[in-house]
């Protein structure tokens, strides 16, 4: 089972790429849960809400492992770790430990070289490049393989499909 995570700063095309890749066979797909969770709580999120979101991802990844299916996920624990550290200057040990114990095989890191799109849940329109650099630094610290995905939507999709074709499921 291989775990491929689509990651990167806000409004960098992660969900668009994820939705376009759903046509591929041989993968389980885990949609971005934080958006659903935040809509459901009907209040501003807090530090401990990020832990609840992390527990969802860990459970979904475990389910895919049990089913012995490779997966593609729209964000994961890395995003939550960066989110916690950037906004709160701390991170839940559960997130750090879970990411270290069960890292993905590959990150597809979406470059923020596309226009910002407003969304009421997005918070960082002016520092996407800074956050992109943080993603790359954290991935390097974890020693996880990654590929940078950039260009317009069609170029991103071609890049991602080419990369995924070379992964041995």
Task: Explain the overall architecture.
- The chain is α/β, with parallel strands linked by helices.
- It has a single domain, classed as P-loop containing nucleotide triphosphate hydrolases (Rossmann fold, 3-Layer(aba) Sandwich).
- The chain has helices spanning 14-21, 33-41, 47-66, 77-88, 93-101, 128-142, 153-165, and strands at residues 3-7, 27-30, 70-74, 106-110, 145-149.
- It is globular and about 40 Å long.
Task: Provide a concise account of the structure shown.
This protein has 7 helices and 5 strands, in the order βαβααβααβαβα. It has helices at residues 14-21, 33-41, 47-66, 77-88, 93-101, 128-142, 153-165, and strands at residues 3-7, 27-30, 70-74, 106-110, 145-149.
Attribute tags:
single chain, alpha/beta, Rossmann fold, 5-stranded parallel beta sheet, globular
Helix and strand arrangement:
Blueprint: E1 3-7, H1 14-21, E2 27-30, H2 33-41, H3 47-66, E3 70-74, H4 77-88, H5 93-101, E4 106-110, H6 128-142, E5 145-149, H7 153-165
Parallel strand pairs: 1-3, 1-4, 2-3, 4-5
Helix content: 40-55%
Rg over CA atoms, rounded to whole Å, is 15 Å
Average pLDDT? 91
CATH-defined topology: Rossmann fold
CATH class: Alpha Beta
What CATH architecture do you see? 3-Layer(aba) Sandwich
Strand order of the largest sheet: 2-3-1-4-5
Shape: globular
Q: Which residue ranges are poorly predicted, with pLDDT under 50 across at least 5 consecutive positions? A: none
What structural class is derived from the secondary structure elements? alpha/beta
Measure the end-to-end span: 6 Å
Find the count of extended strands (DSSP E, 2+ residues): 5
Give the biggest sheet: 5 strands, parallel
Number of domains: 1
CATH H level, superfamily name: P-loop containing nucleotide triphosphate hydrolases
What is the helix/strand order? EHEHHEHHEHEH
Count of runs of 4 or more consecutive helical residues = 7
State which percent range the strand residues make up: 5-15%
